[in-house]
Write a structure and sequence with these properties.
Largest sheet: 2 strands, antiparallel
Strand content: under 5%
Number of strands: 2
Number of domains: 1
Number of helices: 12
Radius of gyration: 20 Å
Structural class: mainly alpha
Distance between the termini: 24 Å
Helix content: over 70%
Oligomer: single chain
Shape: elongated
């Protein structure tokens, strides 16, 4: 069943395209508008292109972990809308296996698309004059991809569990794809937003996926860009661009990001199972 769902997803070019649409929008906006706006006051900083390109790719990894899993779970909505789900439920296939096939498909799609985005992103960074991630940081990012996809897919599964029609799913996908860039501070750096909006970003679980990737991927370029600079400058950069979040003067760490992603996955998968089971009754 998982193999069947994967084939359906990758065979549908439209589904693949729309799962990448947010990523394409981010790249286009950064290339045309956001790049000069964000780096306007940092033109004289050494290695600023390496630093900001790493920041953007990190944000893209967080975005694609949600949009790609959302696109993959669209198969479940299609099966419901087309009454195919009823055929499966009267077959010898166990309900747990059926639900698991959609979850494994979404997770696999999210990991595959994220790894492809990482490879393409690293090629872009190196081609722009940057450096490839160190072996240690590469392993951290790959591990972060698995956690990020696990966390994002749990949220998406919970949302999709409410949809029974194609139109509702399409509308939700459009809204989520549009908002995700704002909610993790890709389009507009978090430091430029009002405090109330910053508070929303800080409680949005996917923001911690972005923070994890940004912390790891900007470590090398930041060491170059802020070499010899006061420690306060690096802290200001991290808080302004959402590399780390500040709570009562304390900065979040990679451990905090991991905990948030794990807890999010556990909570939302539990809520999804409860909602799906409730509907069966």
């Amino acid at each position: 069943m998982t193999k069947r769902n994967l084939k359906l997803f990758f065979r549908d070019r439209g589904a693949v395209f729309f799962s990448l649409l947010s990523v394409l929008i981010i790249i286009a906006l950064y290339a045309v508008f956001l790049g000069d706006t964000i780096t306007g006051g940092m033109k004289d900083v050494k290695g600023v292109d390496f630093l900001m390109n790493s920041w953007v790719i990190a944000g893209i990894l967080a975005v694609i972990s949600m949009t790609s899993t959302l696109g993959a779970l669209g198969i479940m909505v299609e099966d419901r809308a087309g009454k195919i789900m009823k055929d499966f439920t009267v077959s010898p296939l166990k309900r747990g296996s059926l639900a698991g096939s959609y979850i494994f498909c979404a997770f696999a799609v999210g990991v595959i698309m994220s790894l492809v985005a990482l490879v393409v992103g690293e090629i872009f960074i190196v081609a722009s004059g940057g450096e490839v991630l160190s072996a240690e940081n590469m392993l951290k990012v790959v591990g972060g991809i698995f956690l990020s996809v696990l966390s994002s897919s749990s949220i998406v599964l919970f949302l999709v569990s409410f949809f029974k029609s194609r139109n509702a799913f399409t509308t939700a996908s459009t809204v989520i794809g549009t908002l995700i860039g704002f909610l993790i501070g890709v389009y507009i750096p978090i430091g430029s937003l009002p405090e109330a909006v910053q508070g929303v970003i800080k409680v949005f679980p996917v923001s911690y996926s972005a923070s994890f990737f940004r912390t790891v991927m900007t470590q090398q370029p930041a060491a170059v860009s802020f070499d010899g600079a006061p420690a306060g400058m690096l802290k200001e950069f991290n808080t302004e661009l959402g590399v780390q979040f500040e709570f009562d003067g304390k900065m979040t760490t990679l451990a905090v990001c991991v905990i948030v992603m794990v807890v999010t996955a556990a909570v939302f998968y539990a809520l999804s199972i409860w909602n799906l089971s409730r509907k069966k009754k």
